[in-house]
Amino acid sequence: MTKNKSVIKWIEEMKKIVNPKNVVWIDGSEAQLEQLRKEACESGELIKLNEEKLPNCYLRRTNPNDVARAENRTYICTPTKEEAGPTNNWWDPEFAYDKVLGIAKNSYENKTMYVIPYSMGMTESKFSKIGVELTDSIYTVLNMAIMTRVGQKIWDSLGDSNNWVRGLHCSCDLDEDNRYVCHFPQDNTIISVNSCYGGNVLLGKKCFALRIASYMGERENWMAEHMLILGVKRPNEETKYICAAFPSACGKTNLAMLIPPEYYKKKGYKVWCVGDDIAWLRIGKDGRLWAVNPENGFFGVAPGTSKKSNPNALATVQKNTIFTNVVQNLDDNTVWWEGLDGDAPENAIDWLGNKWNGKTAETKGAHPNSRFTAPSTNCPCLSPEFNNPEGVPISAIIFGGRRAHTTPLVYESFDWAHGVFCGSAVSSESTAASTGKVGVLSHNPMAMKPFCGYNMGKYFAHWIKMGNLLGEKAPKIFNVNWFRTNGEGKFIWPGFGDNLRVLDWILDRCENKKEAHKTALGFMPTEDDINLEGTKVSKEELTNLLSIDKDLWEKETADLESYYEQFGKDLPVEISENLKYLKLRIKEML
Length: 590
Ligand code: GTP
Ligand code: SPV
Ligand code: MN
Prior knowledge:
The chain is of the alpha+beta class. Helix content is 29%, strand content 22%. It contains 17 helices and 31 strands. Strands 1, 4, 5, 6, 7, 8, 9, 10 and 11 form a 9-stranded mixed β-sheet that branches. Strands 12, 13, 14, 15, 16, 17, 25, 26 and 29 form a 9-stranded mixed β-sheet that branches. Strands 2-3-19-24-18 form a 5-stranded mixed β-sheet, covered by helices on one side. It is globular.
């Protein structure tokens, strides 16, 4: 426990509002967590899975109205609307506190308040930041204990400092119409009511490590990004590190845990995972950009995870894992989801809790945004640098999204400002990770649209500023798209492990080992520059993947122009200039 005055004062204030039956301080010990797992199984909140096949693994079925982040109910509550900017929902802080604390009032009646002290990043690292989350949900406690560093050591490290992020989570009665996730960046405070799902309630993750942290980063010259971090070891070279920002459910976990295709494996290539969702980036003593992963676990998308697509993720979820909204196989009390190897179980229960026969069912057994929560240490390819308090130096930054057409497989930006423009121009088809329709194309600059804790125009300017500070040492910036489809709507590029073929070209470019040709979009490889050995991709298909359709890009740039209008004077001139030149280059295309 702690004697920290600001912590004790705040908890007392919150207790008066939510009115818990009792308070339990989470100490991070296995004994305490085990006790909580038992309680959750007794109450039905969790289901214990087959101890032999899936040791210490649990299943959770959430309320069917509560299966993804609620973006349209997520608010940035800065003193002025201008600070939150045109892409965020905004509420006046006073109004928001009244509203959500009103909903929270007495919501812990007859319930326990769990106090979770946690750190984003290693406590030993000067880049780490501390948070305290209050919750009435054991599921949330157990997830936070996997996703962050939790326990007594956090209090020791905090001492009497007031520099920590307050987080109040109230499950309430999961009323969708009163579900709100509110951020008060100027008060280091997050309040979430009426949800019990992932990013809405694991307050260290998107709420703190992206929304609040991005706000801090702008003031303190660092960056909090929705990025994976991976290391690629090529034969006879040092490991090089890459960050990649893709929107939710667009392939970060899969790229971060990539297994090289046979051809590359034989040559001695190896890929290491440092992080799969969030990167905190700072300029190091050597002037380069360094990245740490502030998380301690993976909250990954289950569907599509198989021995073929991501054997590392599959190996990661064989023990000490919480599964949310997947299928329960009643024959052996294990789990299943669409896209997993093997036939669908016939004697099963679907994510809704109904009897489900995978052979005859017409509905999906697992929710498309069903997830696993697993400790980083389970990952067979976890980087030896994972716990390095300094992080890893970054050679390349990649942006990408889900685009059926328009965006080619890969291109390299001409310089940092052009790269920032490319990031700001990312659009992607929506996925099940957020509530709402799937497959709708929308703008998602740097994959941060749902996660930027302040004015996105100012965020673009912050990117430009970081590039100026980095100067010559700035990483190169690339754009990729694994999701182009053919006439039949099938993905042309095999993706997953084969994405290493593109990373290989990217690293060659970072080391000036390969020529590229200048196109309207940026520097690009030719059909001969991407190694296809061991794939079924034909040269013709690769040509198609690398093609730029003039008509589509004329539409794209016209659309971008109107998208940028909302940022008004906050749009950096570097972005508008780059759009102007891109339009000219496209006009000149044959
Ligand atoms: P969040 O955790 O929501 O941030 O998602 P993420 O970006 O980590 O996405 P993830 O790697 O979990 O992938 C989401 C979905 O995309 C899964 O169903 C994957 O199977 C699929 N996917 C990932 N990589 C590829 C790829 O290279 N090609 C194709 N076709 N699908 C992919
Ligand atoms: C995402 O949606 O980008 C996720 C899952 O990584 S959540 O934690 O729910 O945000
Ligand atoms: Mn994510």
